[in-house]
Amino acid sequence: MPDMAIQVRDLHKSYRQLKVLQGVEFAVEQGRIFALLGPNGAGKTTLIKILSTLLKPDSGTALVNGFDVIAQAARVRHSISLTGQFAAVDELLTGRENLIMIAQLRHLKQPRRVADELLERFGLTEAANRRVSAYSGGMRRRLDLAMSLVGTPPIIFLDEPTTGLDPEGRLEVWKVVKELAQGGRTIFLTTQYLDEAEQLADRIAILHQGRIIASGTLQELKKLFPPARVEYVEKQPTLEEIFLAIIGQKEVC
Amino acid sequence: MATLQRYFFSDLGVMLGRSLRHIFRSMDTIITATITPIGLMLLFVYVFGGAIQSGTANYVNYVLPGIFLVAIASGTSYTSLRLFTDVQRGIMDRFRSMPIAPSTLLWGHVLASLVFNGISLLIIVLVALLMGFRSAAGILPWLAIVGLLALVTLTLTWVAVIPGLTARSIDGAAVFAYPLIFLPFISSAFVPTRSMPPVVRAFAEHQPVTAIVNTIRALLAGEPVSQEIWIALAWCLGILLLAFFFARMAYKKRTA
Ligand SMILES: Nc1ncnc2c1ncn2[C@@H]1O[C@H](COP(=O)(O)OP(=O)(O)OP(=O)(O)O)[C@@H](O)[C@H]1O
Ligand SMILES: [Mg+2]
């Protein structure tokens, strides 16, 4: 088993003349929660699509679970699950049928049991036999997450997993993510919510103008920020302030 | 890769099962797909029929093959719509990020389309029977008809896959079907080609619908089929291969 769950070197990707990724580099250790931050349009989804074999990079290398995302795409797919930015659930099927379908596609022995366990865990047992078209946004998102956990792949990609959830739903997702990491999975998540990264992540990277402009633990990132000033009350910088400060510096120079 | 091969049929079964559920849970789509052809059949038989010199006593028998093709063309547009929805909703991305034989994603939809169109054609035959359709064909000719219609459906479904994967809007995904629905009108499907002006007639006699319609018409009547069956098969196989090739390109391009 490689030590690094994800290794990315000098990754480039453009859509025609729009340069989205321009030399992205980072690595994620196994069993960690890694949060990728970036403003709208920074290229977070693009990066996740490359790592989950949906999109080919223009140049550079990306290894997931030790496998090359281009040359060994099939092996990468065995190692990952993806929860996209928008809930990818089958509207015409029921919640249970959605889960059973994924369990069958992952060739699990007891698809029904797996489905029922996940329904229970995500509080969807009552709605299990209703069609997803009748689910609320939050229920869809929970089902979507549940579908990603079928078959226990070692690396999980979550693209803005809590966008559109109410505060309670967010806390639930946070709990699940923490549990998964404790169980040894590697979680790669993107988020717009800086407090989410602050709450969850072991390591945080900031993607801006095509590059990772800062990465490290929250403590390390805080050091990049001018020390706490005494105003009326002493106040530690939040990640949001760090983020804005770093982006501000980059744009000045 | 070996494991992908091993699970090909199991994955295909799951995908087909999913698509069939979609079909049986939206029966309204079958009704919509049969309404236009049935309406046309009523129109031609009860309104225009008396004025058209088809040379056959039973005009329902005469128009039925063309009605079949209209039904298949409008039926396969649902494959475009379903694929388009899969792409839009992100379900396609979810499947593609999983260790599944990629071709099963498309074949599931394609095989389901055969079932969908099979049901819609059956409904049309039942209505035609009520309207006085009678066939002298035995078992073998009927099998040949079913086989030819299945081939046409397969061909048009692979054509429908292309806009399903590439369209930018839901209307764009369905619009390919309109010219296909229109094609039977400039063929031998409803009126004999000899009544048409020369240019139109030349087009009508050399487009695939005429060969297919004439073949099915002969089979239904229990008459020997002409050389046209080979022309019909050649058209279908040619278009099928082309469409299959472009559909795969469109699918691959999504990963570029
Ligand atoms: N298929 C595409 N074709 C052309 N441009 C694209 C395509 N997908 C994304 N882009 C552009 O690439 C840039 C990065 O998009 P991406 O979706 O990766 O950003 P993001 O960081 O996920 O943003 P958000 O926070 O809004 O989800 C954006 O400017 C977007 O418009
Ligand atoms: Mg995004």
General description of the model:
The complex is a heterodimer of chains A (253) and B (256). With 253 residues, chain A is α/β, with parallel strands linked by helices. In chain A, 37% of the residues lie in helices and 25% in strands. Chain A has a single domain, classed as P-loop containing nucleotide triphosphate hydrolases (Rossmann fold). Chain A has 9 helices and 10 strands. In chain A, the strands form 2 sheets. Chain A has a 6-stranded mixed sheet with strand order 6-7-8-3-9-10, sandwiched between helices. A 4-stranded antiparallel sheet of chain A has the order 2-1-4-5, with helices on one face. Chain B has one domain. Helices cover 77% and strands 0% of the residues of chain B. Chain B has helices at 2-6, 8-25, 27-48, 59-89, 91-96, 103-130, 139-166, 170-174, 177-182, 198-205, 208-220, 228-253. In chain B, α4 packs antiparallel against α6 (103-130). The longest helix of chain B has 31 residues, at 59-89. The chains are: A alpha/beta (253), B mainly alpha (256). Chain A binds chain B through residues 49, 52-56, 74, 77-78, 80-82, 84-93, 97, 101-102, 104-107, 131, 147, and chain B through 1, 4, 7, 10-11, 14, 17-18, 21-22, 25-26, 89-91, 93-100, 254-256. Bound molecules: adenosine-5'-triphosphate (ATP) and magnesium ion. The site of magnesium ion has 4 residues of chain A, from α1.
